[in-house]
Specification:
The structure is a homodimer of 649-residue chains. By secondary structure, chain A is mainly alpha-helical. Chain A has 26 helices and three strands. In chain A, strand 2 and strand 3 form a beta hairpin. In chain A, strands 2-3 form a two-stranded antiparallel ribbon.
């Protein structure tokens, strides 16, 4: 008898293991299907459904199948057991069931009204994975990759505008959505659709902040394919990357805003506490992220000294790079800051300093590794979003709320882009034209971040309604606006290049746009924003020489009395580069990083891109081995360490 | 009041998230430390402590700190709660604690005597992660990488010997260890050290099977650095890779061996059932793994037809490759087979067929990706092994058992290597010399697989004793034998090349060994084992033309009546290659894959390796772009698709 029982329990455990495999297998198949579809679409130059839209569609279908085809084997889980002996939920619970002790692990707190939802399908429950997986595993690579590809001359040139859109714009968007939703909620209570829940103004603001995170991944992918104007691309990319960070911290601050008395009344003390909270977390995360990157830069920098040649071991270098970047995320989380923000700025700083110190082999390795992780994570998230519509068990669909949210999202986007563009154009020499503004308005898709923020807390009914609504808005914007990008670009006459069937045509157009960009470059210095110029001066004179082996030696930039220290800190190779322009790593052909599962081979063109930057910036650009395809070719030719090394041997 | 409670619960959850971050951070720091140490060691050519040994040492120190420095904040978790309403443990448990419902997830079953162990440190508990993580996340990349790097001419030449050592040798080792341990257990019961537990002969055999998995990762790394004889390297590598698969399936079969009556008595029916079980699972996993690889080969193969050019999108190709290989693992697990075995043979088949179809860019990407994953997973496992000595809470140290296990492991290794080598030498033309046999005996380290198999089940006291013993044997063998490899090679006079300080000396020695190997190559065909020749013929005539674009066209190898089908299945480019030797992908310079965080740059030598293989095999070798450094260089020069493609455009 006992033997039999033991045997059964082993079988159970086996079943448990296999169950996990089945779920992962479902995701794998969805991803494989998505890849095959992307491939097919790319072959047919079919742009009305982007891969993210496709992934979502497959997820949706699979969710439908799981929901209505699989049966429910686990009915017992809906029962609630009483336990009066405890005061709070411990992290581990040992339970004696018919003389056998089982260990249970704390998962989450559940509101009473949700208990019934748990009586459902066990398969559905298993497909709904822990929200913390989004924040701790899937988002960091995406955000890091975004930061890592931000290393752009155009980004720094447009820094002021991007910061305005990202900070002020997101705040405006959050408040506008909050106000409109509050109106809709009041109306819903009035017509009796909504019982008197705890749906305060802060909840509306919370919804506003999470819906303010834009994710134009689809739009940017199409921009990249179509060779759209670089300034528009940079504005959109920069805005969306920084705006994610702002939205995440904003959501966190609002959820901790707790006025002492009536939650509807305005409490100045609590408000300023929230603002302080926002600033503190943002600054702290920024500092955490950049300091890890600086440490990485210093470690990889030391390969120039004779003793330590980390660049000889690209695997170790890549490993260190990966682990230190991940540590930035984890440290921020452990310190109570926002890991996502830390990893974003870590990525930006790594690209700006560490990247220049890496060996050519490591440059390629890190680039491909992060690209691949980004690709997988992105498609997993979009698949999961599709799945969630049917597998998530506590959806609350409210048509009025959804309609209100749609209206709010558009009004908020409009009151972000148009007024701010008007203000920015007062100060900008190169104005943001009207059609660019329309395109930016149109590109306000909602994606992974909005979803991740919404799924993080789905315990109360208002939060569930927000989650359902956020999910539907993501579907709507990704499919409709994502699909409409190409026609919209044509309509707004932004599309510079008509991609024909003949690759040669592409080339000519590319060369034309390149020469236009060359003309443009001569005026760069004069046009630079003052913010950029101040930053550039400081970076070029002090940070670059300290953290990389480019730029003028510190001995020439620091005051004379610092000379002993300066000599110690300057790389020997910096003296040779003294006369060169350190500006070269704000690379021109900057579009390559965003979508590298692009054709790299069959069109032998892209070398032209780098010719442009070589013309403009001189020889050093070659040594930098930048992120573009031109640099890629160069990396391939010398597998050795930095060429400067030879002078040391 | 309620507000306050809500606030507290949010804080708790936050604390819960951060805790996870802290644990991961600890692992990150251990890995960063390990990498920095490896780097230092490599710089000083210090070979007495390999990186795996270093990782284990750091893990050990960290475990010591966690155990004795951190305090125990979670005392409540030791209490066992009664629950009579249930019959078995459901996967999810909802528990009402002071009017708040919490969700708990099933973790595992616990024996009564272990309950006390849970009263300990919460930090320790959290550092001890789920054994299934080893099997489902950390081992697959290591095993796949091993399979993927098995693509070797020497491997197929020594196939018979490798299979003998792997299958027969592991079986011998398992039985010998089982018998010796049974003797020791009897003695322990006799002197009263051991109460009359359920320590049957099958338990001893179980221990024997898990201790039979050898893991000479340390030894092979040093072999590679020292340029040891390729045949010895191949024998050891091939044996250890296949032997892991055999040990895993053997352990599974033994744990399901359940004689009906007295478990000590021999039950023929149950025995043959176990043998059948073994064969079925092995064959099934083999089939599952290879069929996924064949599917991958067919998909990537289709890029030669005009319609589908997957090779233009290296990211998609890499993604598909990765996902299909992982699916092999997951499908096998879901089907109740052994995922590790499936993923091993998937790797072997991928390397043999799919690899040839990939674009040069994807070849490099997949290679670097799997290398990197292997590197990380390996170091995580070794760090974790170090940690486990102090953080695992149910260790049972029994000196006699440990001593017995040490003796048993050595006797078993000896009765595997020497008798089998003697038998094999009767049939081999090129004998396995005595010093090779001693080196193989010496290289029987125990590592990740033995540990993972032992940690999978630590519920009963015998299993805990086995786990503790296995862990200590891993420590002992990795540190003592790993550290002693270099002196041992010198002593046995196997060390071909003395690595001096001057890199030129290295080069000369390398060139010398290369020319020796060239001489050797001329006799290859004649010496090939019959097993190899049969397989080679079939593979060359039918499989290669079907799955890759090399080899003779199927129209010439299949009977005439198959012509229509054959024409359909043959790649157009195969006709051009008709006269070439398809043997070239059994590459010569085969050592590069195993340890690629080796210097690739500062010594401009390795092109010589490929010169050797080019001389021997003609032009096609270049197109194949093989795994060695020579091929690497070639891949870099043309970033385009396979050169054959041009003829199609």
């Amino acid at each position: 008898m006992e033997k039999l029982k033991k045997y059964v329990s082993v079988k159970d455990e086996d079943h448990f293991y296999h169950q996990g495999a089945v779920e992962l297998l479902i995701f794998n198949f969805l991803l494989i299907l998505t890849i095959l579809t992307i491939w097919l679409f790319k072959n047919h130059r079919f742009r009305f459904l982007h891969e993210t839209g496709g992934a979502m569609l497959y997820g949706l279908l699979m969710g439908l199948i799981i929901r209505y085809v699989t049966k429910s084997p686990d009915v017992e889980s809906g029962t609630v057991y009483e336990c009066e002996k405890l005061n709070s939920g411990p992290s581990t619970l040992l339970i004696n069931i018919t003389n056998q002790v089982y260990e249970y692990q704390y998962k989450r707190e559940i509101s009473h009204h949700n208990v019934n939802g748990h009586q459902g399908n066990a398969m559905l429950q298993k497909m709904t994975f822990d929200p913390s997986i989004f924040f701790n595993i899937l988002l960091p690579p995406i955000i890091f990759h975004a930061g890592y590809s931000l290393k752009k001359r155009h980004f720094f040139r447009n820094l002021g505008s991007i910061l305005t859109y990202a900070f002020l714009g997101t705040a405006i968007s959050c408040i506008v959505i909050g106000l409109i939703m509050y109106g809709f909620v009041k109306a819903m209570v009035h017509i009796g659709q909504l019982k008197q829940w705890e749906f305060h103004f802060t909840d509306c603001l919370f919804f506003g902040s999470l819906m303010s995170a834009t994710d134009p991944v689809t739009v940017l992918a199409i921009f990249h394919e179509l060779n759209v104007d670089t300034d528009l691309y940079t504005l959109l990319f920069g805005e969306s990357v920084l705006n994610d960070a702002v939205a995440i911290v904003l959501t966190h601050s609002i959820s901790t805003y707790s006025p002492k008395e009536n939650p509807n009344a305005f409490d100045a003390a609590a408000f300023f506490q929230s603002v302080g909270n926002f600033l503190g977390i943002f600054a702290g995360s920024f500092a955490m992220g950049s300091s890890y990157a600086v440490v990485t830069a210093l470690i990889s920098f030391t390969h120039l000294t004779k003793f330590t040649k980390l660049c000889e071991f690209p695997m170790l270098e890549t490993g260190l790079f990966f682990l230190l970047s991940w540590s930035a995320f984890l440290s921020a989380e452990a310190a109570g800051l926002t890991g996502i923000v830390a990893v974003l700025f870590c990525g930006v700083t790594q690209a700006h300093y560490t990247y220049n110190n890496l060996s050519p082999d490591s440059k390629m390795r890190t680039k491909q590794l992060f690209e691949f992780m980004n690709f997988l994570a992105e498609n997993v998230i979009f698949c999961y979003m599709g799945l969630a519509l049917f597998t998530f068990q506590n959806h609350i669909f409210n048509l009025l709320f959804i309609f209100g949210a749609l209206v709010a999202v558009f009004v908020a986007r409009a009151s972000n882009i148009y007024p701010l563009s008007f203000l920015l154009n007062l100060g900008r020499k190169q104005k943001i034209p009207r059609n660019f503004q329309h395109m930016m308005m149109f590109s306000g898709l909602r994606g992974a971040i909005a979803f991740a923020l919404a799924i993080r807390d789905t315990d109360s009914q208002p939060k569930q309604m927000m989650f359902t609504t956020a999910l539907l808005i993501v579907f709507f914007t990704v499919w409709v606006f994502g699909g409409g990008t190409t026609p919209m670009l044509t309509r707004l006459q932004i599309r510079l290049v008509l991609v024909g069937v003949d690759p040669d045509e592409d080339l000519k157009a590319k060369a034309a746009s390149q020469s236009a960009s060359n003309l443009d470059k001569n005026t760069t210095k004069a046009e630079s924003a003052w913010l950029f110029r101040i930053w550039y001066g400081f970076d070029h004179k002090y940070l670059k020489p300290l953290l990389t082996h480019t730029g003028p030696p510190l001995t020439s930039t620091l005051p004379e009395w610092c000379n002993p220290v300066a000599r110690l800190l300057t790389s020997p190779s910096a003296y040779g580069d003294q006369l060169k322009d350190g500006d070269t790593d704000y690379i021109i052909n900057n579009d390559e990083l965003t979508e590298n599962y692009e054709p790299t081979a069959c069109i032998p063109a892209p070398a032209q891109d780098s010719t442009g930057s070589i013309q403009a910036t001189g020889k050093e650009d070659i040594q930098e081995g930048d992120l573009g395809l031109g640099g890629y070719k160069l990396q391939l030719q010398h597998t050795a360490c930095q060429p400067q090394k030879n002078s040391l041997a």
